[in-house]
Amino acid sequence: MKLLNYYNGDNELRMGVVTDKGVVDVEQALAASPTSLQVPTTVREVLSGGQAAQDTLGHYIAGLNITSLNIAGSNTANLPQTDSAGWLKQEDELTLAPCVADPGKIICIGLNYRRHAEETNMPIPTFPILFNKFENTLNGHGRTVALPANSTKVDYEAELIVVIGKNAKNVSEDEALDYIFGYCNANDLSARDLQFRTSQWLTGKSCDGFSPIGPYLVTADEVGDPNALGIRCLVNGEVRQSSNTADMIFNVKQIVSCVSQVMTLKPGDLIMTGTPEGVVMGYPEDKQVYLQPGDVVTIEIEKLGSLTNTMVSEVALG
């Protein structure tokens, strides 16, 4: 199942389920086609409700007569003319929000791809390097990212996000995947000049809008092995990063287990699992060209779709 969040005309956050016919606004669908089932209407409710909530949502969506409905806002003339009640949406007409809008934690793993560690001339970590980001950094697909006025070295980082699906504390590697709800794309944008002013990376990682995620939250059953996924970053259509999650130093099982030894992971917590080689910082200094206003950055991970954002100048925004 693929979930997304979008803003309606009143700027309210709404959950949609992606189908091959369009995006189902679950709350609107329930108003038009009520059921006795306790169907979750927000991503938070799906995450908090566990497998039962996911199964109920899937059962309800499967029972809808989607093929006979018009897509709201569509001008497609050959669709059957029936009362859709406006709950089937065209994805390209939606203003998308982060696919998880209210994570309790945003945990990040640094230097977790072998070739990325090598390109930055940093040693291979003995243990996962943990740091964090905050909710102010969250951003959605198709939205702009303001390049901070106090930085000239903003870099891209294509990353796989693990979305936790149930409480996890001191879990083993063997059982770690059982605690994962799903996965999504992320761009761990990083202001390198701010990041390395001190030994702590937080400053350069925590600028507003520096964590675009999505567009979809894809359930684990649709993804399969999270350490066998192609991952790419493109800037203005040019491939900058091209790797596979198999190159992780610490795989997803190890990461979830390790973090759970330190803190209790809860539904909706996000873990950014590191970036592969190809970042600007890894180029020779005379070839480093950091992100500029107008640059379009796309993150692509196999089975998770494409996440695209345009850089703009914070100064120009006033």
Automatic annotation (TrEMBL):
Keywords, in A-Z order: Hydrolase, Metal-binding
Gene3D superfamilies referenced in this protein's UniProt entry, alphabetically: Fumarylacetoacetase-like, C-terminal domain (3.90.850.10)
An MF annotation (GO) of this entry: isomerase activity
Keyword Iron: no
Record has Calcium as a keyword: no
GO biological process: carboxylic acid metabolic process
Annotated Fumarylacetoacetase-like C-terminal domain residues: 105-311
Domain of life, per lineage: Bacteria
Pfam families found in the cross-reference section: FAA_hydrolase (PF01557)
PANTHER family xref list: FUMARYLACETOACETATE HYDROLASE DOMAIN-CONTAINING PROTEIN 2A, FUMARYLACETOACETATE HYDROLASE DOMAIN-CONTAINING PROTEIN 2A-RELATED
Family: Belongs to the FAH family.
Protein's UniProt name: Fumarylacetoacetate hydrolase family protein
